[in-house]
Structure formats: structure tokens, C-alpha cells
Design brief:
This protein is of the alpha+beta class. The chain is 17% helix and 44% strand. The chain contains three helices and 15 strands. A six-stranded mixed sheet has the order 3-2-1-6-5-4. The longest helix has 13 residues. The radius of gyration is 18 Å and the shape is elongated. The model has no long low-confidence stretch (mean pLDDT 90).
């Protein structure tokens, strides 16, 4: 990876964007690509720069606010620059959720490590992938513009306690209700 000489400019521009209210309109920005930087987001949501964890939560939150995905690649973008970064799994990590109501009247609202908050609903769906070797589930929720958050293990175990069986698309599923929608997790027949 090469480090473009404009990283200071990128950070300064990002700080200006973050000072505004509301999320930056990264979906509207298509600046020139300036190269990759040595920045990585680990599976546990830790951000690294030059191999060192970034310990300042406000700085991580700032970077997360200007994160953009194009295809399978991730970038930090400003109106004038775009730099590539590496993401080990999902770029965000859901670390908690609140449940209100019960059954099909239940609403689940997730919070990420970078303080994004979304309610599980059709425009913020749930997906569960299974590790091909172990069969271990990996649950994700869509946070914004093709950016998914891995749901941490403790939250997933809490979600399982709220799950129920429901007939969905002609098949019995174990899953979750939120915002009037059923989100299937695993076919009921695959549970012990």
C-alpha cells in the first residue's frame, strides 16, 4: 500500500464535514482516487492506522462518517479526495440493541460502536451468514448505503432469546420480529 501525500488534507476536510449537522452526503461525492492508505478495520470493529489501533473514539467516529463502499472496496471520501482502506469483515460493529414491545409488535433498535443507531426494518434488514467450516452464524444489519454492521456475539445471544418460529415464504423459520416485519434467521428444521 502506498500513502498519498494528501492525508493531512483528507483529515482536515473530514473534520470540516463532521462539524456539520447530520451525516455527510458521501453517496454524492465521487472525487478522484488518491491511493490506498495503511488503515484497516478489524472484525472486532477496531480501526488501525499504520498497524497501530486508533484509540480516540471521536476520531474513529469521524472516519466512520466518511466511509463509503463501492463494490467490494472501501474508501474514506471527502468532496475532493478518496483513499482506499482495508476492511477485514464488516466495516461497522453493532454492540447493543434495545427491544420494545413483543411478538409481531416488537421493535429492535441497534447501536454501533461508532454510535450509529438504526431500527431493524425492511430498509435496514438483517442477514445471517454461516461459516462454511464450523456452521457458526455471523449476523449483520445494514446501517447505511451498503455498509453493514456485524452484530457482536453477546447481542446475537440476546436476539436468540427474543426469536420465535414463524411460517415465512412457505417454510418454517426461526427468526425475529421488528417494525412489523419477520426477519428469518435459520430454517426451523435446522435447529436441534
Amino acid at each position: 500500500m502506498t500513502n498519498p501525500p494528501h492525508i493531512a488534507d483528507t483529515l482536515a476536510a473530514a473534520a470540516k464535514v463532521a462539524a456539520r449537522k447530520g451525516p455527510p452526503p458521501v453517496h454524492l461525492w465521487n472525487p478522484p482516487f488518491c491511493g490506498d492508505i495503511d488503515m484497516r478495520i478489524a472484525r472486532d470493529g477496531t480501526w488501525f492506522y499504520l498497524g497501530t489501533p486508533i484509540g480516540r473514539a471521536p476520531l474513529v467516529k469521524l472516519f466512520a462518517s466518511i466511509l463509503k463502499r463501492e463494490g467490494d472496496d472501501y474508501f474514506l471520501v471527502t468532496p475532493v479526495e478518496k483513499v482506499g482502506i482495508k476492511v477485514d469483515d464488516a466495516p461497522l460493529l453493532a454492540i447493543d440493541f434495545d427491544a420494545h414491545g413483543q411478538g409481531d409488535a416488537q421493535t429492535l433498535t441497534f447501536t454501533t460502536k461508532t454510535e450509529d443507531t438504526v431500527t431493524l426494518r425492511p430498509d435496514h434488514p438483517l442477514r445471517v451468514e454461516r461459516d462454511p467450516d464450523s456452521g457458526e452464524p455471523a449476523p449483520y444489519i445494514l446501517i447505511r448505503a451498503n455498509l453493514w454492521a456485524l452484530i457482536d456475539r453477546k447481542s446475537f445471544y440476546r436476539l436468540v432469546d427474543l426469536g420465535c418460529h414463524h411460517r415465512h415464504d412457505g417454510q418454517d423459520w426461526f427468526g425475529l420480529w421488528s417494525a412489523g416485519q419477520f426477519f428469518p434467521v435459520i430454517p426451523s428444521s435446522e435447529l436441534p
